[in-house]
Design goal:
2 copies of one chain form a homodimer. By secondary structure, chain A is of the alpha/beta class. The first copy, chain A, has 3 domains: 45 residues, no CATH class; 133 residues, Rossmann fold, CATH 3.40.50.2300; 129 residues, Rossmann fold. Helix content of chain A is 45%, strand content 15%. Chain A has 12 helices and 12 strands. In chain A, β3, α7 and β4 form a beta-alpha-beta unit. The radius of gyration of chain A is 25 Å and the shape is elongated. Chains A and B meet through α4, α5, β2, α6 and α7 of A and α4, α5, β2, α6 and α7 of B. Chains A, B: Pfam families: LacI, Peripla_BP_3. Chains A, B: This is Transcriptional regulator. Chains A, B: GO terms for molecular function: DNA-binding transcription factor activity; transcription cis-regulatory region binding. Chains A, B: Keywords: DNA-binding, Repressor, Transcription, Transcription regulation.
């Protein structure tokens, strides 16, 4: 139970009427002396008067809020993505309401309802939602537009697209060129669409090159450093010359596991990752990976959802962002 | 402009009165047949009906919201801290409104006002606020309690305390015991109180052991991986046998700089960090550091602020959390 500073408090201190304060704070300065304007603005800052947002929202039925659901704020890819959203939202006077679902279905739906209750005008969903049609149903009935990142939309909707299939293919071509005939992929156990596409792009390229990658060569784990670490032994059992980690977090976990096994990267085994988080340049050897424009994905997602919020009849928006291979020092040429 | 599902929509679909729906959703089930109760609850889920939060907040003057200001959500220490807050807040039906200030004063004050506008009931401030008395003034006038993390309170207030001075001393004792007579500290250019205490605890311990650490041996930089990387050359110029990085992010940056300089950790130079972020175990060699209970700091901060929100006359609360040295492989014994 807080007692906020009211417009009446401010008017009293400034020794002017409530109407005067209201008009000045709404930018109608020219009706008053510059002395009065200055005094009111000064006092607003000093007293910390903030117009009552809930009253405004009730009238506008808008919280100038974007609900954002990500799987894991501990993953540096998502922290950068969130910073992109934050920066764009702020430029348009929106606030992101950030939720980390930890891939927990109960949390997801709790946060979804919280976003609706708190008058979110739109949502950006980057979490691996277990039941998309349920979410679509709830949000559509509440008239709340949403944008999915890295997932197949239920219906035709706005989309921020990164060519994951191409990213997977780039890595496969690179490893093939470097002579790696026997590879292992460490992938996630509950793949979102983007992960499936990375994997498919990779496998397809190997298949077309006439080099089979069997199911035994695909190890499933969680998308974390610990997931990568735990998967090391199973991956090494297949005697690969190179491992494709489906994201950089897994690659970092594999680095640890491989070091502990007494092996050296890339002399004994080569590694490639995916995302190009900042850490990729800080580990030894520096990680060869596919660069995803995480920050730009965030700003673009925020741009699209704000456009959609402000104009529901806007034509469907699709933005495709580029990926590229970043060659560093974690792959060695293999001469059989 | 969203059109939310209303209680009237729900009542119509359920073919009961609005009062019936309201009573059932407020837990007064026993007045109705189990069939009706089941139908109403089922429809609430299906239609995604969420009671209008803004109307509720206007009456209660509470948003069941905790504003949280951190310097940098990219730092894994703060992601864990935030997860602690999130988990505790959720257990008490509060929502954290998370803002990353990037140590930018304009952003700080923007987010502060946003929190007030959005009916935050309390705030947790872990950001290095440039003008604390201004913030204290604004929040106090609005009747919003706040909790500072790692900073000196303006007035006597609630506090979550970690013994930073002890943490610094533990590291100094450890390095002295290992024979390191010539050390460099890589510290931050705009230190918060916790950082100053780490540094002071460290310096004091060296001084008491009769080993001077001059100003030249303290290199200032930003609290990021890149900050540590950029500081490497200046640190190496002092020819230290060991470097104390004031946080683990800086230590990871130093690892990179030292590798690029062709040196080996710990054979050529020893490194210690501070925080014990999960990465400390993933880099090679594993980093010796001081463990801070980031998650518990988050849950404790949330507990204290919620108690304070719900009872402003509660006596001042102080919780002190332990730190401990975690010995890994980044320090070598020095025999001169």
């Amino acid at each position: 139970m807080t007692k906020k500073v009211t417009i009446t408090d401010l008017a009293k201190r400034a020794n002017v009427s409530v109407t005067t304060v209201s008009q000045i704070l709404n930018g109608k300065d020219d009706r008053f002396s510059s002395k009065t304007v200055k005094k009111v603005r000064q006092l607003q800052k000093e007293m910390g008067y903030a117009p009552d947002f809930n009253a405004q929202s009730l009238i506008r039925r808008s919280g100038r809020t974007i609900g954002v659901l990500v799987p894991n704020i501990n993953n540096p890819f998502f922290s950068r993505f969130l910073r992109g959203i934050e920066s764009e939202a702020m430029a348009h006077d929106y606030i992101p309401l950030i939720f980390g679902s930890n891939n927990n279905q109960k949390l997801e739906s709790h946060y979804l309802f919280e976003s609706i209750r708190r008058a979110a005008d739109g949502m950006i969903i980057a979490s691996a939602i277990s039941d998309l049609s349920y979410i679509d149903n709830i949000l559509t009935q509440n008239g709340i537009p949403y944008l999915l990142i890295d997932q197949a939309p239920v219906v035709k909707g706005d989309k921020v697209d990164v060519n994951n299939r191409l990213g997977g293919a780039l890595l496969a071509n690179y490893l093939i060129k470097k002579g790696h005939q026997r590879v292992v992929v460490v992938a996630d156990e509950n793949p979102t669409l983007n992960m499936e596409e990375r994997l498919n792009g990779f496998l397809e390229t190997y298949r077309k090159a006439g080099i089979p990658v069997n199911d035994d060569q695909i190890v499933k784990t969680t998308l974390t450093k610990d997931g990568g670490y735990q998967a090391t032994n199973q991956a090494l059992l297949q005697k690969p010359t190179a491992i494709f980690a489906i994201n950089d977090e897994i690659a970092i976990g594999l680095y640890r596991g491989i070091h502990e096994a007494g092996l050296t990267i890339p002399d004994d085994i080569s590694i490639v990752g995916y995302d190009d988080i900042d850490l990729a340049e800080y580990i030894t050897p520096k990680l060869t990976t596919v660069h995803q424009p995480a920050f730009e994905m965030g700003t673009t997602a925020a741009q699209l959802i704000i456009k959609r919020i402000e104009n529901q009849s806007e034509p469907i928006q699709r933005v495709s962002l580029p990926v590229k291979l970043v060659e560093r020092q974690s792959v060695e040429r293999k001469i059989d």
